Amino acid sequence: TPEHAGLTISFACSLIAFLALRQVLKVLAVRDGPLGIAFLYTTFSIPVALSLATSLNLDSLLLALTCVLLLLCIHAFVLPHRKRSHVLFIQYLGMTVLIVAGLLIKFSGVLLIAIPLVTAFWSAKRRHALIASSSASLLALFIVFPFYFLHYYVPAGTFFPHNADLLEEYRPKAAEVRAARDSDRLGFLWNLV
Q1: Rg of the chain over CA atoms, in angstroms?
Q2: φ, ψ (nearest 5 deg) of residue 184
Q3: What sign does the dihedral 43-111-189-146 (CA atoms) show?
Q4: Which of 30, 65, 109, 187 has the greatest number of C-beta atoms within 10 Å?
Q5: How confident is the model at residue 162 (pLDDT cuts 50, 70, 90)?
Q6: CB–CB of 92/135 below 8 Å?
Q7: pLDDT tens, 179-188?
Q8: Pick the residue with more confidence: 162 or 122?
Q9: By C-alpha distance, which of 103, 107, 113, 105 is closest to 73?
Q10: CB–CB of 25/36 below 8 Å?
């Protein structure tokens, strides 16, 4: 049934997110210490794991994309060993694909743009890493822009419409909430972070 398929995908995505975050902690050499163990098992505690594995929404998929993107960025920017140019190109292309997928899944996927930029600051070759991460993020935005423009901006007049706009009885309340959000855009963005 579709419900079982959705639950299977949610479970698989939460497992991928757990394993990717575990690998991130291993690469950073903190997985086996008390801090790494506490972080990993607090992040994926039983209530969180059950919620993600049994939900029929896209949050577990977005979390899996986030954890895999973080792992890929750490491999590309933070690890000190030299890589061949084609390996780096594949890693940068992977970053772009993961960001595009996150942007197409949910509006909150826009936060994935920050992951390559933040991890680039820990690179030994910071200038090169910032250029590469900016390029991957801008390419992802360039790829997704036509979809956002035609699918959201043309009919709704905004790039991030509220789902309440689709239901007639919630439109007045949605307009009130949007006005409060738009009055302090920086505060709204800071609240997201």
Answers
A1: 19
A2: -140, 80
A3: negative
A4: 65
A5: low
A6: yes
A7: 877 788 788 7
A8: 122
A9: 113
A10: yes
